Amino acid sequence: MDQMTVNQPLDSFTLCPKFEQTFSILGKKWNGLIIEVLLNEGTLRFKDIVTNVPKCSDRVLVERLKELEQDGIIARNTYAKSGKVDYSLTDKGLELRSVMDAVHSWGDKWFA
C-alpha cells in the first residue's frame, strides 16, 4: 500500500443508512441487555426485566422498552381481564439471536 492510499481522506466513505439505523438501536445503552434477557428468558413482566437488568433505572427501562416497541423489536402485551402487561420479542427481535450470539463469541475471544 503506498503512502497516498494510507492517508486518503474518508470524504467519499458513507455508512449504509440501514447499518446506522441498526447500530442506533443496538448501540443504545441497555437495549442489548434487554434484548438478551428476552432472548434467554422469553416473555417477561416489567418487574422481571428489572430483576435481570438491575442497574437500569425504571424510568430509563420504560423509555427503552417503548423505543424497542416502536422499532418493532419487542411487543407489549396487555391482557384486558387481568390488566397484566408483559413484553416479548417480535419475529424481528428474535432474528437478533444470531447477532447476539456473534457478540458473545467475540467477547469470549477478546475479553478475559
Automatic annotation (TrEMBL):
GO terms for molecular function: DNA binding. The keyword DNA-binding applies. Keywords: DNA-binding, Transcription, Transcription regulation. Pfam families: HxlR (PF01638). Residues 16-112 form the HTH hxlR-type domain. InterPro entries: HTH_HxlR, WH-like_DNA-bd_sf, WH_DNA-bd_sf. PANTHER family: HTH-TYPE TRANSCRIPTIONAL REGULATOR YODB, TRANSCRIPTIONAL REGULATOR, MARR FAMILY. This is Transcriptional regulator, HxlR family. It comes from Paucilactobacillus wasatchensis.
